[in-house]
Amino acid sequence: MNRYLVMAMRLPQFDTAQIGPHRDFLDELRGQGRLELAGGFGDKSGGAYVLRASDLDEARVLAFRDPLHLSGSSRLDVYEWQA
Questions:
Q1: 12-67 pLDDT, tens digit each
Q2: Measured between alpha carbons, how far is 59 from 1 in angstroms, rounded to an integer?
């Protein structure tokens, strides 16, 4: 499996009620062995996480299930990360 960096940047309409569901989503990915690392930025502008997936398409499918994306609270960008 490859690594993918997901950048989640807050949008002006960010809904703080989505933080709990977002954390639950990350816990689900962690339980599946798909999440390596996650954390927020100190300036509260967003955060990032590292996914394990077979390819970029699969990584996008996983990331775009994030409640932050589904609610329109954050813009998610997914990059293949060759660490």
A1: 999 999 999 999 999 999 999 999 999 999 999 999 999 999 999 999 999 999 99
A2: 10
Compute CA distances 3 → 12, 22, 30, 40, 60, whole Å. Answer: 29, 20, 14, 18, 12
Separation CA 72–CA 57 (nearest Å): 20
pLDDT digits (tens, 9 = 90+) for 64-75: 999 999 999 999
Tell me if 60 sits within 8 A of 78, measured CB to CB.
yes
> If you ran DSSP here, which 8-state letter would residue 22 be given?
H
SS3 20: helix
